[in-house]
Specification:
This protein is mostly helical. It is built from 17 helices and no strands.
Amino acid sequence: MSAPGTLRYGTTAGRWVVGATVLGSGIAFLDGTVVNVALPAIDADLGAGLSGLQWTVDAYLLTLSAFLLLGGSLGDLFGRRRMFVYGLGGFAAASLLCAVAPGTEALVAARALQGVAAALLVPGSLAIISTSFAPEDAGKAIGAWSGLSGVTTAIGPFVGGYLVDAVSWRWIFVINLPLALVAIRIATKHVPESSAGGGHLDLRGAVTAALGLGGVTFALIEGPVRGWSDPTTVTAMVAGVIAAVVFVRAELTHPDPMLPFDIFRSRQFSGANAATLLVYFALGGAMFFLVIELQRELGYSALEAGAALIPTTILLLLLSSRAGALASRIGPRLPMTLGPLVAAVGLAWMTWIGPGTAYVTGVLPPVVVFGLGLALTVAPLTTAVLAAVPQEHAGVGSGVNNAVARVAGLLAVALLPAVARGVDFTDGFRRATWISAAICALGGVASWLTIRGGGTNATHVPPCAEQPPEPVRT
């Protein structure tokens, strides 16, 4: 097993590390999508009802979002490989509870436990890559992780559909057990351990961060369903905001904070997270409306609507590693600027989609352009975030970025329908997609203004140091 920070991309040792992290985080990503196609079968078996089905999906999203910061911090303190393996074990155990759930309440509770375990996996997997590979190869490894993890997300509906039809909805959870065991075996044998060491868990920060993220996430999930003036929605949002304010005050005064706010003094870290918020808002909003438009106005089935977006996934798989390598060589500023602008062109092109649009001539081209933009953006963006924080805070840096991405998607789904209402759905879809295109383009502008230029060496400037006024790289 190689020492942290020395692995080379393309070597056998490097492949083992990438394989373990992709398999581990891929299980978490797959479970975020695979459940959707099983909802009718779950309802028929358990009598879940609409509310029960919503919470079967949302319980996972809620706890995952709430505990991402804590998961990243625990890895930094006590060992990233250790927390990654604990997360895999917890995810497998929670999946077993899902598979044998006798009723809706038990299933929702088990899904919430899955989300907690996933909060250890996702930031941990990226932190492992960031700290295991040599600086000049980290971008390539992150690109491979991005592309392969995107594939696991995309195949979720197909795997889920097959298992539900061929066996039972319970098998969408059973399949996680052997996958998690394989990932644990690879991680314990081939992944080097790394941690900051010497610190103590910031309990006050952990509790207030979870309450803040959890409250805001709950409100964003329930707002479109209950209404924004509903007492439950308002209470959750207010409680979340108050907890977030308490968290910030606590971290600023804590001698060993869970989230050291010095990392935000890095223009690159703050700028990359601003770009993440803008790009993932655009991505979440546009994909939400496009899938509905394809089904409602163009007559696609749910499976056909999902398959229509496969070209984006293929492009991520084929190009993410190359984009990461490019970012390592020239710096992430240029790809992070051009990527969102290209994606914005694809989104603007999608506004031509409407009743009667043929897939090959009207849907496929903008989906391909959008996918090219994403492929150029995702790996450099992730590389930029992790390069802008000291290695001892790689886990919490990844946790921050993951939390920003998830909140961005929730904000898009919560806010865009209200501002994009039109005479008919297609009119609303086009308004929402134009808004998404503009916001995505702003992500490119934010990257140009905040990300450093230059190759790999420029990416490892300590974030607390004074940033040069010149270009910043993500």
